[in-house]
Every structure is written in C-alpha cells, then in structure tokens.
Amino acid sequence: MLILDGASLNLEGMKKLLYEKERLTVSAHSLEKVEESRKAVEKIVAEGKIVYGINTGFGKFSDVLIEKEDVAELQRNLIHSHACGVGEPFPEVASRAMLILRTNALLKGYSGVRPLLIEKLVDLINAHIHPVIPQQGSLGASGDLAPLAHLALTLMGEGEVFYKKERVPAANALEEERIEPISLTAKEGLALINGTQAMTAMGVVTYLEAENIAYYADLVSAVTMEGLRGIIDAFDADIHLARGYQEQIDVAARIRQYLKDSRLTTKQGELRVQDAYSIRCIPQVHGATWQTLGYVKDKLEIEMNAATDNPLIFDQGEKVISGGNFHGQPIALAMDFLKVAIAEIANISERRVERLVNPQLNDLPPFLSPSPGLESGAMIMQYTAASLVSENKTLAHPASVDSIPSSANQEDHVSMGTIASRHAYQTIANTRKVLAIEAICALEAAEYRGIDRMASSTHTFLKHVRAFIPPITMDRIFSKDIQKMDEWLKETAKHWNAVTSQ
Predict the structure, then answer these.
(1) Which of 98, 182, 364, 473 is most buried, with most CB under 10 Å away?
(2) Mean pLDDT of 157-163
(3) According to the UniProt entry, which residues carry 2,3-didehydroalanine (Ser) (predicted)?
(4) pLDDT of residue 72
(5) Quick one: 174 exposed, middle or buried, by C-beta within 10 A (0-12, 13-18, 19+)?
C-alpha cells in the first residue's frame, strides 16, 4: 500500500501504482491540511470576499463577480465548457497517472477542495476506473484544462471511462463499484483542471518506457557487436574514465559485462584497427541519452509533488494568491529534450542495422538472406528502420518554442508541454521498433557466427527471442516479427534484468 502525502511521490512509486497493481491511501496529516484550506474557501464564500476562481469568472472573465448562490453552478459550468478535448484518448496508463498526480497535488493543502473529493479520486484509482481523456486540446498553460476537465467529468458521473478492459459510460462503472458521483462546490472544478497533470502523467509514462529502452539499447548493441565482430577495446574503462561522464562510463561497463565471455568480439588490429562510429561510440551516444534521462527524471519528480493550480491558499486563508504555477514550461522543455535524446538512440541503432545487412560493410550473407537474390532477407527491415528514424526527426522539433495567445490575450504565453509529452511518447514507440529490428538482425548475424561462441548474457537473450521469433530460413512476413519483438521489448522492459539472469 503506497501512501500519498503530496510531497514524496517518486517515479519508483509511480511504477508500482501504474504497472504492479499497488493500491494507495492518503496521509492523515495531508488530509488535515486539505481540511484547513477548505475552511478558508468556505469563509471566503461566506464573507463575500472577491477571489479569483472562487467567486469570479475565469480567464478574461476574471473581473466578473459571481453571486454566492451561483458558485457551485460556476464550477459545474467550468467543467462542462472546458471538456472539449479531441482526438484519440490518452493511453489508459496515462489516464491512471493523471488521477494519481492530481490527487497528490491536491493533498498539498493549497487548493481548497474538500477531503471528500480526494476520497473519490482514491476510490477511482483503487477501483481501476480510468477516465477516457482525448489527447488533443491542451496549450499547457492555465493548466491542462481540456484533458483534466474530462477527468473531472468522471467524478461527476459523466463522460466515459476505461473499466475492466472496456470503454463504458462513467455512471455505469461508478454504480458497479458503488461510488457516488460528486457535486462540485466552490473552487473544486478549478482545482481539478488548473494544473500540469496531463503533460506530467504522459511524461511519467514516457520516461519509464524511455529508461527501459535505454537499457535495451545497450543489450541489443552488444549483440550487434558480436554479429559484426566488433572491437571490444573501444569499451575499455580507461577510455571512458579519461572523459569523465559517469553515464558514458556506465554504458561501457554494461557492454563489457554483457560481452565478458564472448568469443565473437575482437581486439584492435585483429580484423581491423577501428570500428565505425555507430559501434565504437555506443557509450558516448547512449551515455548522453542517459544524461538527458537524469535531467528529465529530476524535473518530473519535482512536478509530481508540485502545487500547480491557481489561486493557491496559504496561512489558513489569510493569503490567497493568483500566480502561474500551472505554466508547463519546465515539463515542456524536459519533454522536448527527451524527444531528441531518444531519437538519437534510434538514429544510431538504424546505422548499426545498415552495417548488419549491407554486404559492402560486412562479411555476412547479403541482407542476412538465406538465398541472396531469390530471397531479400532483412533488406526492407532497414527501410522500415530508416522511415521510423526520419519520422522521429520530425517529432523531435521542439513544441515548447511555439506559443499562441488564448482567452482574449489574457493568457498570452503558453508552453505546449502536452504536445511535447505526446510527441515524446510517439518517439519512444518508434525507437522501440527500430531496436526491435536491430535485435532481429543482430541475433541473426550472431547466430550465423556461431551460437556457441556468444557471450552467456547475449546467448540467454537469443534463447528468449527464439521462443517466438525463429531464425530467417526463408522470406516471410517480417512485419509480424517486428511487432512481436516490439511487444516483447515493451513487456519485458518492466523487469529487463531477468533477460540476462535466467
């Protein structure tokens, strides 16, 4: 059971909540702070103080005063009017992440919601009722308004949800789990939607997959080393210590560990003096991606525990301040950085695929074909990898450099962080497919060299893969192989160490 308290959630905890069926509860102390801020809101309403979002309109309507008897209707109208997302829904796991992150943010006690609202959010999470949230429609400032409005609809018993592997009306799922819908009161609608939880949730899911991809890139490239009889000297610890980047040092160490008992790698001068950069510079390129992952992890874990709505309530209501914590710029930049770093994993992987299939660059059968000419072998796999790499270059264009004013120019600079996080996720999916192609080709090449000469770790990897992808003995529909490898990489990535320990 994981305890949310608004301050200590990390990516390891999110992994347990998203993928390991961990249940959650909330800190009693945090609920006390929530209760204090709620009393402050009720006092503001009772005394008729003018405070943005409690008894005023929103955005450009912030100067419109709302009567005391209309504040509940104001919140309901807010959710209905802002629930205008379009496009395909976010992955269900990202929707679950949004619920968790929104709950954690409200537990900080600055938002003025009732403890009841938080209890309902926890009920949804533990019952695995996940809102259907369209991916498009957020500017990433004033919060992820449209996506989070669709989340809020679920609490009200409206909209659709993912429940028991089906897409159903929210009211049906709530009824089955005996969860009463909630009627939002003063400040609660705004507190639910005024935050960065859509981009951060997508960022969390993307990061966790990116981390796994980075590990797999090291393993797959080690197999490529064997298939091409790569020079192991380039991974010597002294080279990488001489430069000093810890991530580069770590990648080189992993490659050495994978290949420690291989009889397929060579020494410099044995077959050639130097390998191409896509082989020789694996630690430098993969290591730089790991540096980026470290930066992104730091920003995500701060944002996961941040108060990002507006206004925020301090000193038991004595200080209520309108600010801009909803602006997604920190996550927008982090997601754009992540896109570039992961695209480079695919970029260098595709170059290794080319070296595996191009007969002018190796001494393997042309295109790894069992009957060159009659059968094309892996020729078009490289085309597919090249296409995915090219698409990643388009996705890597930074979303955060764009801004379009909204709300009659009141909100005149926005982050586009949710677009950045969505594109980062697409980049991850493309990169995993490129690595799947490299894995298929590398294993084929290593097997051609001799299974008995492979390292223990890479041989274990081969045995795992051969359970569902046979060697290339004739041309077949390789799209199916790529899909199987892609799915296997994604699934086993959650416990990737098992690949080399069994």
Answers:
(1) 98
(2) 97
(3) 142
(4) 83
(5) buried
Specify the amino acid at residue 455: A
- The tokens describing 176, both together, are 């089955």
- What are φ and ψ of residue 134, in 5° steps? -60, 145
pLDDT band at 65 (very low <50, low <70, confident <90, very high): confident
Over residues 417-455, the pLDDT tens digits come to 999 999 999 999 999 999 999 999 999 999 999 999 999
Domain spans of the chain?
A: 2-195, 204-307+340-501
Q: What's the CATH architecture for 2-195?
A: Orthogonal Bundle (1.10)
* H/E element, 2: strand 2-4
Whether 163 sits among the annotated catalytic residues: the reply is no
Cis preceding linkage at 311, omega within 30: yes
Q: Which residues of 269-293 are buried (b: 16+ CB within 10 A; e: fewer)?
A: eeeeeebeebbbbbbbbbbbbbebb
Cα angle 160, 166, 172; round to 5: 50
Least confident of 150-154, 249-253, 263-267, 488-492: 488-492
Angle CA 147–122–4, to nearest 5: 100
Q: What is the pLDDT of residue 64?
A: 78
- Enclosing H/E stretch for 134: strand 134-136
CA–CA separation, 111 and 102 (whole Å) = 11
Identified catalytic residue from 52, 110, 215, 258: 52
DSSP letters spanning 270-318:
TS-S---HHHHTHHHHHHHHHHHHHHHHHHHHHHTT---SSSEEEGGGT
